[in-house]
Design a protein that fits this description.
two-stranded antiparallel sheet, TIM Barrel, 10 helices, alpha/beta, 282 residues
Length: 282
């Protein structure tokens, strides 16, 4: 079941603040700032703006391309975050990061009201882990504001058939919503949703089969950073997943992924630079 919209990939993508990414020339890196107290990765800043600024500065210094700020934990079993609480968490962080660095800022949210507040505060793109399938107001907001967006396939609560077919089915739904909202094709990046509703074996299968998704000619992002599947394979705790993450990042780049989403900026920037030098020589 292949997407209803084919040849969706544009030649470039504009994440905001004057940046332009030319697809296929190098891998781009999204650095994570969790404005929460219950992040699965243990790195939530919990209202500490100085910590957010220091992290943003470190991302800029090591060559990260965009900063992704979220205010609600998406870990399995996390209690839902009230929308107003999420908004109150992210807006001050977006403002502080906007003033501290000259990088595009992504707002990681499923809600239009949070996205709108963050965009008004200085965010320049949207990252939705529900692929515009939860809040019907989010896709129209993205279209209206003419900002870039990452739309993820989320397998949670869905019946499983085949990992690639399941992801493509989710992409179909997302692209239908985007088309109806009149989101410009060049504004989209899709994420297969590593770690969202999959078993460890299925997550590894996604990585092995990533080349099948690149045949869709859609810009793709993946976020494997510090995920529990890495810890299960390596039998390591959360703080010991750096090298496992590096392996998944290098493999994903070799498979054709365009953007990686990571916690460990400087280390993963080196992994990206080295892998790109091998597979994408100038």
């Amino acid at each position: 079941m292949w997407p209803i919209i084919r040849n969706y990939r544009a030649s470039s993508f504009e994440p905001g603040r004057g940046s332009s990414w030319a697809w296929g020339r190098r891998t781009h890196v999204m650095g994570i700032i969790n404005a929460t107290q219950d992040s699965f990765s243990g790195d939530g800043i919990d209202g500490q703006l100085d910590k957010a600024v220091a992290l943003a500065n470190s991302f800029e210094a090591c060559g990260i391309d965009v900063i992704d700020i979220g205010g609600a934990s998406s870990r399995p079993g996390a209690d839902p975050t009230p929308v107003e609480v999420e908004k109150s968490r992210v807006v001050p962080v977006v403002e502080a990061v906007r003033d501290a660095v000259d990088l595009p800022i992504s707002i990681d949210t499923t809600w239009a009201v949070v996205a709108e507040a963050a965009l008004n505060a200085g965010a320049t793109m949207v990252n939705d882990i529900t692929g515009f399938l939860l809040d019907p107001d989010l896709a129209p907001l993205v279209a209206q504001r003419e900002v870039g967006a990452v739309a993820m396939h989320n397998q949670r609560g869905r019946e499983h058939h085949d990992v690639i077919d399941d992801i493509v089915a989710g992409f179909n739904e997302t692209l239908s919503v985007c088309e109806a909202a009149q989101i410009d094709a060049s504004k989209l990046i899709l994420d297969p949703g590593f770690g969202f509703g999959w078993s460890v074996a299925q997550n590894l299968e996604i990585l092995r089969r990533l080349p099948e998704l690149t045949q869709l000619e859609l810009p793709l992002l993946i976020g494997t950073s510090r995920k529990s599947s890495i810890g299960t394979v390596l039998r390591t705790d959360l703080g010991e997943r750096l090298f496992g993450t590096a392996a998944t990042v290098a493999q994903a780049i070799c498979a054709g992924i365009d953007v990686i989403r990571v916690h460990d900026g400087s280390q993963m920037r080196e992994v990206v630079t080295m892998t790109d030098a091998i597979i994408r020589p100038e």
